[in-house]
Amino acid sequence: xxxxxxxxxxxxxxxxxxxxxxxxxxxxxxxxxxxxxxxxxxxxxxxxxxxxxxxxxxxxxxxxxxxxxxxxxxxxxxxxxxxxxxxxxxxxxxxxxxxxxxxxxxxxxxxxxxxxxxxxxxxxxxxxxxxxxxxxxxxxxxxxxxxxxxxxxxxxxxxxxxxxxxxxxxxxxxxxxxxxxxxxxxxxxxxxxxxxxxxxxxxxxxxxxxxxxxxxxxxxxxxxxxxxxxxxxxxxxxxxxxxxxxxxxxxxxxxxxxxxxxxxxxxxxxxxxxxxxxxxxxxxxxxxxxxxxxxxxxxxxxxxxxxxxxxxxxxxxxxxxxxxxxxxxxxxxxxxxxxxxxxxxxxxxxxxxxxxxxxxxxxxxxxxxxxxxxxxxxxxxxxxxxxxxxxxxxxxxxxxxxxxxxxxxxxxxxxxxxxxxxxxxxxxxxxxxxxxxxxxxxxxxxxxxxxxxxxxxxxxxxxxxxxxxxxxxxxxxxxxxxxxxxxxxxxxxxxxxxxxxxxxxxxxxxxxxxxxxxxxxxxxxxxxxxxxxxxxxxxxxxxxxxxxxxxxxxxxxxxxxxxxxxxxxxxxxxxxxxxxxxxxxxxxxxxxxxxxxxxxxxxxxxxxxxxxxxxxxxxxxxxxxxxxxxxxxxxxxxxxxxxxxxxxxxxxxxxxxxxxx
Length: 661
Fold this sequence. Notes:
It is built from 28 helices and 17 strands. Helix 12 (about 320-330) links the parallel strand 14 (about 305-310) and strand 15. The two termini are about 20 Å apart. The relative contact order is 0.13.
């Protein structure tokens, strides 16, 4: 796991001095790779690669990057892991290939020389983003993994193409002019995150998951804009195709057959992700997903697995007791950090700098803190991310199943029920629920925004209307601009499949994987997601829907699998999520911080945010209505804006560390 950056200059302006920016570009990514920096430059070709190293496999000098292939034809700067590299290596060795080191990057280079780029990508199981320079054809290839676990930003800056793992590196290039994309900003303020198909800077874009962009230096001037450049992208793996084929060719078999197959697949995915030359552990929340990962790790480990969780003092937000029970049953070496609200709030000023694009999923706070805790003991941590998207774990997934059946009720009846829920939501806003003898987690579940959301779903006119309401953010728009366009979805069978696709193509790479990547990489920690192995994803799309949602509950097959490792009492509990009490904090200890940012919005944020709407939202929240989601998005956007204005842009022209390899 590392940070990568690069520059390709058009012959129209072959100024070799521009290549000197690769030094500060790469240095800006030092948190992603604390174990060393490498640079490679070919001044005649007008190309430069940078690499920040987090050493995980092959800690010796043979693992350093940028790396040149054995024949000398290719140079690569690689971020990520190829989990099945040992199998690929054995296959290549049987064909007569030899290796100097023991790492996966060298295997990938050899595979590309032997089988070609796209064929090699299809053989790889892993998470990655990399740049490959072909010295023979003078072509730059940029590639990204199937589901978008690792980021790769691409931009045009004058007569140069620049790329990097994070936007902060691209801003170090002298010719790059960061211009706000108002559509992306509008989407962020609605969703809480910038969609993966958009970018907060107008003249940059994210390489799509499962794709390759191949460019020669002469193509840069012809492209003219990032829009035309992005049209050159070709997909070597397509989620839409996998989903469509999976629904057309479902797996047949008994419940035990399906569970056995999933057990075998996940054991393999977990086993491959336990390969490392550094200490390794796992996040453990006590939920279905992380418990499954840890159970399969422990089942294949000779010693206790290191596990980590965060404990909160606020009622309704603390899952540490569940995690401790799971750890005790499985016999892991468990570490729990009891976090005070003050300690959690202290990291908020760091968030805009770490996430680099505006980001407002409040669970970024505990994710960052548990990554910081884990890094004190290990360098690699497995995660349960992806289970919800693969196996239907969100409320909207099993609500889709329930509400589709309720569509048979007359619309008038459903609207009457919706009115009742609206009244209950009003009671929640007026603190009537606080006077009732309810558990803290029940009050958390009965937040008024969730009740209003369910009421809106009940009153949907038909299935297409219900789908749109399920996948559309329910929060009020506080921006003056239209949102970024939605993702084009294939035709799939049933409401559940449509909602799952929307989450896997949108929410997963745009929010969940961005959250995990930035939180782990900011701490020099590698996060691995076995539930997002491409073989698991493809299996999940072939599952019958009732293997995902059954008896009104999601993730049926994962629960069935987990019962082989844990007792029912540690499995059958309501989903809680990895939240922090932002709503209460905004009314209390974060109030001063928020009011300062609100003043900034009134002063200079009017081009994006509607300050009158923001002020109205703030007043509603102070009166007791939960408007924390809209407010948190607005506040984090403004905090990001302030950070990007204050952050210095390094454009040094020091001598390069390397003049080729």
